[in-house]
Amino acid sequence: TVEANGNIYVNGPITQSTVIAKGKIILDESKGVIQGGYVAAEEQILATIIGSELGVKTQIELCRQVSIFRKKSKTIEDQQVSLLANYKKLHEATQTLNKLRDMGKLTQEQAELRLKIIRSGLQIQSQIKQLEASNRSLLEQIELAKKEHLGIAARDKVWPGTIITILGHSFTVKQPTTKPLYRYVGNEIEIFAFKEKEEKKKST
């Protein structure tokens, strides 16, 4: 397994290996074959040939962090639902005690309980606000990844058996595809014609 915090430039093939980069993975034009294994990056993956004629399972993933962000976002949303349910119960209890107070029937014990409930409610409100801020940040990062990723591309060909995953969405290549550029557009992965000159401009 090879992992890097930035870009990985490979002067040769990647065969039955795990290679992960937080930037780009660019393979040399003459020997740039990815065959088997798992290759993942955040911004771009560029090879000459991906997969093989024999249909060797080859997993290529872009923006893998987004899958992690989505799971975190779902966890936060579940926590928010739970906290809101607890807050609702506390709010109802406070209203009941307020009625007793307004009627002059609130005991000392109930008065102390009322203050504890109010403090707990304020703590929950603070937690909900913190979760909202964290979730907002995650969703912004997901949207940024959608806009800025450069895609998965092959200068020559992608063979059947290759699994393409972008932003957590996957599909398996069913037929040989010449010079494809896979990008996530709208709500699905689309295939464009890869143009080396344009790609070089983007990479610089």
Give an account of the 3D structure.
The protein has 3 helices and 13 strands, in the order E-E-E-E-E-E-E-H-H-E-E-E-E-E-E-H. Strands 1, 2, 3, 4, 5, 6, 7, 8, 9, 10, 11, 12 and 13 form a 13-stranded mixed β-sheet that branches. It is rod-shaped and about 85 Å long. The two termini are 27 Å apart. The mean pLDDT is 93.
What is the molecular shape? rod-shaped
- Calculate Rg over CA atoms: 26 Å
Q: Please tally the helical runs, counting DSSP H or I stretches of 4 or more residues.
A: 3
Helix content bin: 40-55%
Provide the β-strand percentage band: 25-35%
Uncertain stretches: none
Give short descriptive properties of this protein.
204 residues; alpha/beta; 13-stranded mixed sheet; 3 helices; 34% strand
Itemize the secondary structure elements and their pairings.
Blueprint: E1 2-4, E2 8-10, E3 14-21, E4 24-27, E5 33-41, E6 44-50, E7 58-62, H1 64-102, H2 108-148, E8 151-158, E9 162-166, E10 169-172, E11 177-178, E12 180-185, E13 188-193, H3 196-203
Parallel strand pairs: 1-3, 2-4, 3-5, 4-6, 5-6, 5-7, 6-8, 7-9
Antiparallel strand pairs: 8-11, 8-12, 9-10, 12-13
